[in-house]
Write a structure and sequence with these properties.
Elements (H helix, E strand, L loop, with lengths): L3 H5 L7 H14 L11 H14 L2 H17 L11 E3 L4 E3 L4 E4 L10 E4 H4 L3 E2 L5 E6 L6 E6 L6
Bound molecules: zinc ion.
Length: 154
């Protein structure tokens, strides 16, 4: 399935004016004169929906979050390059909830970055004998990379 960004042919970090321009260009391309009289309503609807979401800051943020969550659910490890790296030892462990949490280093929201045991199972080799995974702040959507050692069973 194409994302709204794909539909408009813009990068996920495009500015609103770039999105506006792409929208106008796409609409022109779907004009009946250009496509030989056949009006592709399906495509036009997709373009309009994409523009509606991406041109509105709040909707776009929500959509970005959704995309990120979707990618996470598929076990997709986003390219962690350029992300701040933390050790799991910098997290606090909540024994009752059985999860690790940490204050976000950007928005300072307490316990905004959380890792559950099932998350840790998704880690990938960090090339230095440990594991790493990327995790997102629940509050400001910042991504960080967390490194840890595979847990020894007690
Ligand atoms: Zn944050």
């Amino acid at each position: 399935m194409s994302s709204h960004y794909d539909v408009l042919g813009v990068a996920p970090n495009s500015t609103t004016s770039e999105i506006k321009r792409a929208y106008r260009e796409k609409l022109l391309l779907t004009h009946p004169d250009k496509v030989g009289g056949e009006l592709s309503t399906d495509l036009i609807q997709q373009i309009q929906l994409a523009y509606k979401v991406l041109s509105d800051e709040t909707h776009r943020q929500e959509y970005d979050d959704e995309l990120a969550r979707g990618l996470q659910k598929q076990g997709f490890n986003i390219n962690g390059e350029g992300l701040d790296i933390y050790s799991l030892e910098e997290f606090e462990f909540d024994e009752d909830a059985v999860l690790w949490h940490k204050m976000c280093c950007r928005c300072q929201a307490p316990e905004a970055i959380k890792l559950e045991e099932s998350d840790l199972e998704l880690g990938t080799d960090d090339g230095e004998g440990g594991l790493e995974l990327v995790v997102q702040c629940n509050s400001c959507s910042l991504w960080i990379k967390v490194r840890y050692m595979e847990e020894a069973d007690e």
